Amino acid sequence: MQGMSDMPLGDLAPELAVLLGAVGVLLLAMLLPQRHHRLCAPITILVLASATALALSQAGAERFTFSGTFRLDAATTWGRVMVLGLTALCVAMTPAWMEDDRRHGEFYSMMLLSALGAMAMIGAADLMQMLMGALLSSVTGYVLAAYHRDWEISLEAGMKYFLLGALANALMVFGAILVMGLGGSTDYQQLSNAFPTEPLALVGLACVVFGLFFKLGAVPGHAWVPDVAEGAPLPAAAFLTVVPKIAGAIALARLVALVPAEAMPLSALVATVAALTMTWGNLSAMWQEDLRRLLGWSSVSQTGYALMAVAVLGRAPDAWAALIAFMGVYGLANIACFAVVAHLRGRTELAGWAGIGRQHPLAVSILALGFLSLVGIPPLAGFLGKFALFKVALDGGMAWLALLAVANTVLSLFYYLRVLGPAVMGTPEKSAATLGRANLWIGALAAVGVVLLLPWAWQDLWRALSGG
Amino acid sequence: MLTLSVLLPLLAAIALALLPRIGDRMARLLAVVFTALPMVLLLAVWMTDPPSGGFAAQFEAPWIPSLGIAWRVGVDGMSLALALMSALIFLAAAAWPMQIARARAYYAWILFLTGVSLGLFVTLDLVIFYVFFDLSLVGMYFLIGRWGHGDAQHAALKFFVYTLAGSLLILIAIIVLALSMPELTFDMRAIIAAPPLAALADGGTVVPGLVLLALVVGFGIKTPLFPLHTWLPPAHVNAPGPASAILAGVLLKMGTYGLVRLGLQMMPETFARWAFWIALLALASILWGAIVAYAQPNLKRRIAYTSVNHMGYTVLGIAVAGSAAGTETARALALTGAVVEMIAHGLITGALFLVAGVFWKRTQDYEIAHYGGLAEEAPRLAMMATLAAFASLGLPGLAGFVAELHIFLGAFAVYPWVAAAGLLGLLITAALFLQLLRAVFFGPRPAEGGVARFADLDRTEMAILSALLALVVLIGIWPLWLLELIDAATILAAPGGGG
């Protein structure tokens, strides 16, 4: 372990850029009159773009930094890039949605800070550091979820997110203290050499893992997802169902990789949670009458699929690559769907979608592509992502889990078609209002990524991810 | 060249969809040109590089090498024959005169379907195959839903949901097949050369059995096989005439083609184990299709159910070919018959549905009872319909006979009782077509409530129907060229083929 002088700031350049950006945008929002707040959006995107450039410039690095608390590797690089890129898409959705909100400008600052929390979690190689990231990501998340203060459903979503989050984060802190007390360190490198095997330390570990399940929206910490998807402002809903999950998944994977299998059968636990999450998410999505809740539950089930890769970590060589690839593909498809909903002014009653396809063919096409990618129909990126997951699950000797995922995939087609069928074939009651063109373009952009870009570049991306 | 025959219609479809200045006549002209071009290309392949014992005109472009997915094309006798027949049906459908709203979009969808259907028959990659299988679904869904009549949207949705559910099963089967190869690949040639699930012999028969079940159900829905056929009649009745011709002529063949390629060729041992049960399923389709067709008072429903019956013969032929029992010759005969039946049914039923379209265009009425004595008013229509009906019921000298003769010769050698029971289907089909002809064309006019005036076929309609039926006659009296092209023995003799 190096001394305290080991603080190469350049290693955290992307995080610092986001932090400075958040402060800058906050100041700007205080100075500008409300009607000019939309100016903050391009600036935020600029901040995210420069942070992405900085993150990419560190691609290929493979080392610990800041006294071993932060890890630079492929997972960090790609996790950062995904968080930054997907946040930028959510930011681009915001101006049209928040136009009339009195605190429009501050929203961007919150998003940046939340993304920063996610990035801190992704790189964390120390329990305390991971905890700080999780707390920052959560605290800003509550604010984002309840941003519509005058709307009960938004408040309820924020409240639910907050209560569950408070419990999960408290458990996580408690767990971290137990692990630290018995293991003598919170540093992953040191813990991996001698992980404490006392029962109390394992209880602590379980607490930490539970906290991460909450961030991921996995059973049993999933209850906030549908509420946030329904009640949070749409850009925030898109953001919160994607970005914290990416961070949670990577953080969980780092933790699982750390604990020796004989100390605690973590992969069995994760596999069980994966099975429960995908099944429960799907079954709950089945009869939803509210599109946004449906998207929330579908996002829960997608988490379940992603956890398959975490469960076979260390047993299947490509598990890391599959996890990251799948999260990115999922995030893009999910944001495409939310962008369409935002374009149609948050239209959420399933019945209200009947016949929308006639009036807004492009919007419904994007939604269909997003859904089909979430199902995993070739040649969409979703297929490639899911296929990678199935393959690592089989390689890792968890065929039962892969089978269950296949069964769930078949099941999931039903509720996606429940939306698309009437949307294409039904007769519209009256013309649907839209929210400008901006959100449609974001959806289109994400859809193009899902349909063309990712499948096209898959070979190269995969090679970069798997380090081969 | 095969790639080009897939891309050209797709590009033309995109152009038609995006360019708003194209008028209706121009759209139709473009559709005719761009469905004719692939046919010319396919004919050129046949002339210059005929498939002999393997896949001809192969081409491969890498896509995702690490997953073994690539753009691979190539044809053997079966797929070339099917692609040629499909191209002809599409040409006929595009050229068929229609007065419809939004003609530009209509022809764009026809071109789109042309591209994806040809793509399905010529591709040698399972993922691409699956993609085209699904896209064909999307194209047909819009053709029925938007330009159909009656309760078209409900019919289109039913069609879509049934076949999509089936296609998901196929996807799962494809993934299992690819994953059980020694090295992950979706290359059909590799999988056919070394059928992977046979190697699982020690691993029991459950997994291969389930995979085959998924394939049979998935393709059985599309074919359609009894009892998975219920989506077919409403889809046909409510679709516009040319769309029906495409649905019956081309799309149904995807089911049986897939059954041969994936079921028979890629898992021959498992197929042989279950061949008898598949033959029974085929028998049920033959009989059920024929009996129910006989009971239909609606012209188009009647033709639709005969499709169930005829595709039953095809599946019977495939089942016989894939059984491990019987002689090599018998099985090759049955497979030849099955492929000829696919071609013949495509041409004949395509023509019959176009004839049904003639009725709808003139009177918007499919009730058989409302017609009578049309032979007098519309002699040309009567001639064409009679010829097509005779071909469909298997009259010697016409294409249907060649097909059914081969199938039953093969079937009698392997499953004599199933074949004998299947002959009943021929009998009923003959009766139902003769009854139909008598009622509509030769019998007396209905006393009241009947259709008063009826215009005969115009020149274009006449030309299209003659072209389709001329081929039916040609195959009927001189089938040798087709049999040589199909060359079923090589499909069975391919390494691993035929159990």
From TrEMBL, chain B:
User: Where does the UniProt entry say this protein principally localizes?
Assistant: membrane
The record describes its membrane topology as: Multi-pass membrane protein
Establish whether keyword Transmembrane helix is in the entry: yes
Q: Which GO terms describe its molecular function?
A: NADH dehydrogenase (ubiquinone) activity; NADH dehydrogenase activity; ubiquinone binding
Pfam families in the record: Proton_antipo_M (PF00361)
Which keywords, in A-to-Z order, does the entry hold? Membrane, Transmembrane, Transmembrane helix
Q: Does the keyword Cell membrane apply?
A: no
Domain NADH:quinone oxidoreductase/Mrp antiporter transmembrane spans what residues?
125-424
Task: Tell me a GO biological process for this protein.
Answer: electron transport coupled proton transport
Location in or out of the cell: Endomembrane system; Membrane
Kindly list the GO CC terms recorded for this protein: endomembrane system; membrane
What the entry lists under InterPro entries is as follows:
NADH_Q_OxRdtase_chainM/4, NADH_UbQ_OxRdtase, ND/Mrp_TM
Q: Which domain of life is it from?
A: Bacteria
Among NCBIfam families, the record links this protein to:
NDH_I_M
Task: Supply the PANTHER family for this chain.
Answer: NADH-UBIQUINONE OXIDOREDUCTASE CHAIN 4
Task: Quote the function comment for this protein.
Answer: NDH-1 shuttles electrons from NADH, via FMN and iron-sulfur (Fe-S) centers, to quinones in the respiratory chain. The immediate electron acceptor for the enzyme in this species is believed to be ubiquinone. Couples the redox reaction to proton translocation (for every two electrons transferred, four hydrogen ions are translocated across the cytoplasmic membrane), and thus conserves the redox energy in a proton gradient.
The family note in this entry says: Belongs to the complex I subunit 4 family.
Protein name (database record): Oxidoreductase
